[in-house]
Amino acid sequence: MNSQILAAWGYWALLKTPIDAIPDLSENQVIVYTDWSGRSPQEVEDQITYPLTTNLQGLAGVKNVRSSSAFGFSMINVIFEDNVDLYFARTRVLERLNLASSFLPEGVVPVLGPDATGVGQVFWYTVEGPYDGGTLHSLQDWFIKYQLNSVAGVAEVASIGGWVRQYQIDVDPAKLRGYNIPLSTLVSAVQRSNSNVGAKVLEVNDTEEAVRGVGLINSIADINNIALKASGGTPVYIGNVADVHLGPEFRRGVLDKAGKEVVGGVVVVRNGANALEIIHAVKQKIKALEPGLPKGVHIIPFYDRSDLIRHSVDTLKTALIEEIVLVTLAHILFLWHFRSILVVTLPLPLAVLCSFLFMHYIGISSNIMSLGGIAIAIGVLVDAGIVMTENILRRAEQYYEAHRASNFLRNGYHHSGLCACLRADGDGGKAFPSPSFHQDVCDGWFHPHCSHSCPHPLHLPDPWKATPRGRQSLDARAP
Q1: Which ranges constitute the DSSP H helices of 17-49?
Q2: How far does CA 443 lie from the centroid of its chain?
Q3: How far apart are the C-alpha atoms of 124 and 111, rounded to whole Å?
Q4: Fewer CB within 10 A of the end CB, N or C, for the chain?
Q5: CB 7 within 8 A of CB 353
Q6: What region does 107 belong to: left with phi over 0, alpha with psi -120 to 50, or beta?
Q7: How many other C-beta atoms can be found within 10 angstroms of the C-beta atom of residue 474?
Q8: Bridge partners (DSSP) listed for residue 256
């Protein structure tokens, strides 16, 4: 009964334990990312990385702070002790970042990285269709990304490839000089024209009408019609001094598939989540949103870790089945004892379930390393079981050989073959004075009597010295 309860408990832990293929060996860390476009690594180091690093030191549970500066961005890794909860660590870092605006350059805002690990990228996909990279990237950013981000357990969905579409204003310096307009005037005019403003309400026919000014830029024509100044009563527009068009944002990488540039995304799972379940949920979400995509657009997976996870689990299943079959054959061929097969084979799945029980409560995920260790341990359990079973059978055989005579005498009432004037050997104790005085055996007890003739006494080894039961019967012998 206890074994059944333990097996059921272990099976429950098997279903609840997070499963992944790749073990997570990363530190317990929080990433702080700061973007400062167009700045050199030295400027980023002096004005962003160093001030943030010094302010993040000294937090509760911090073990180390590592930082790096690159062209246009800063990356800081705050390493915490292993016993510190990840979300407690993120809260402490976020509290310290609230003070960053007081010492960072204007407009620079540091952000936290996703609550994921270095092996959290479990699902990659491409967005393919009869559109250019900018359109597909916009579709990925403004529709697909938000849909997949709503799946439980997903920490982030990042866009890769293509380009971000933006309005680009190519200014002609000669025309600016001719109209005597500085470049700062053009920049401020664009900023002021790309905004909505609100006002109060007007009461019309017992109803309130909200008043607001709509000034968001929706097309190239809106930018061209932004006024910069008036010269002699004639307004000067941006279209008079610059060329406005749509173009790609500056980028430093691409996503390549079979030699062709494509648009895609990567799904990052949350720390400690079940990767296999999340991948399955993401696939179901993709099937649900595909009818809402433009005609000809498809989401095609090209990296799916669930295959690797299933192969890892199948390896453990195969090892367990093979060990059980080999143990069964070994018992049949060499020991020829069928009941001992259960002694060795039943503990194998029970030991695996107990392992998952400990893994669940300790917080260890199922991965290649843990499952491989269980597969190796199965072989050790099999070896120990076979050795113990063979040793038990050998000892039982030795015991049987040592007590065969006593076992034979105790099997019922034996008269005809043993009623032959039993005489003790020289040192077997008292001798029988009469040749016809002998003992019959009934249920292991010797009964001396003189009712049979015994012309030829038979000398046998003394059974009272050979077995404990015989020594117990010494008093039964009469002179």
Answers
A1: 41-44
A2: 66
A3: 24
A4: N
A5: yes
A6: left
A7: 13
A8: 261
Beta pairing partners, 414: 441
Report the distance separating Cα 69 and Cα 44, nearest Å.
6
Which of 2.60.40.1910, 1.20.120.80, 3.30.70.1430, 1.10.10.60 is the CATH number of 27-112?
Answer: 3.30.70.1430
Backbone φ and ψ of 472, nearest 5°: -65, -25
For residues 85 and 405, what is the distance between their CA atoms, to the nearest angstrom? Answer: 71
Q: What pLDDT score does 398 carry?
A: 80
DSSP for 380-431, written as a single string: HHHHHHHHHHHHHHHHHHHHHHHTHHHHHHHSSEE-TTT-S--B--TTSSPP
Domains 2-10+311-402 and 121-164+251-304 share a fold: no
Residues 6+ apart with CB under 8 A from 70: 41, 44
Q: What is the pLDDT of residue 454?
A: 43
Q: What does pTM read for this prediction?
A: 0.70
- CA–CA distance, 357 with 291 (Å, rounded to integer): 42
Domain 166-248's class?
Answer: alpha beta
**For residues 194 and 115, what is the distance between their CA atoms, to the nearest angstrom?**
34
* Helix 2-16, helix 347-362: angle, nearest 10: 50
Domain boundaries, the chain: 2-10+311-402, 27-112, 121-164+251-304, 166-248, 405-476
Return the SS3 of 207: strand
Give the pLDDT confidence of 357-368 residue by residue, as tens digits.
888 888 777 777
Taking the C-alpha atoms of residue 417 and residue 452, their distance in angstroms, rounded to an integer, is: 13
Q: At what angle do helices 368-402 and 347-362 cross, to 10 degrees?
A: 140
pLDDT digits (tens, 9 = 90+) for 142-165: 999 999 999 999 999 999 988 888
| DSSP designation for 49 | I
Write down the CATH superfamily of domain 121-164+251-304: Multidrug efflux transporter AcrB pore domain like (3.30.70.1320)
Those residues of the chain that have pLDDT short of 50 are 409-479
Which of 76, 30, 25 has the alpha carbon at shortest distance from 50?
A: 76
What DSSP string describes 356-389? HHHHHHHTPPB-HHHHHHHHHHHHHHHHHHHHHH
121-128 and 260-269 beta bridge pairing: antiparallel
The whole-number pLDDT of residue 404 equals 62
State the pLDDT at residue 438. 43
3.40.1160.10, 1.20.1640.10, 3.90.79.10, 3.40.50.1010: CATH of 2-10+311-402: 1.20.1640.10
